Amino acid sequence: MDSKKEIVKEYSNDDLTVVWKPNTCIHSKLCWKGLLQVFNPQNRPWINMDGASSERIKKQVEACPSGALSIKTVPKNDNMENDKIKISVAENGPLLVNGTCEITKADGSLETKDKVTAFCRCGASSNKPYCDGQHRKINFIG
Length: 142
Hints:
- There is one protein chain.
- The two termini are 24 Å apart.
- The protein is built from three helices and eight strands.
- The chain has helices spanning 30-34, 54-62, 134-137, and strands spanning 9-12, 16-20, 69-73, 86-89, 95-98, 101-104, 110-113, 116-119.
- The strands form three sheets. It has a three-stranded antiparallel beta sheet, with helices on one face.
């Protein structure tokens, strides 16, 4: 990663927080072409959390190809321990975590991921702790 300081912006409603990392964004335009009432680059701030339902916002964020947009859910009284998480190791690839998990990053920030999350095992990812496919380029065996 280059020497640019990572910028992280958060936009919240009662249910969730959209996290935006502009330095990670590849400007695919999927966010605003799919949900302009929430993601509008002409507005300041450009994310309006009142523009759609939380489920619709979450669905659009999941379509972000670069991971520049992600979701942090607002903690409920639910017990995370009751949710089952499945962890598997991809041959010569990442550690795959299936289920909802809360990730505490090295800088202390928290992120909640749903569905499948791929964690780097090879050490070459430029998107740590997540896998970015570099294991293929370096012929990682593990």
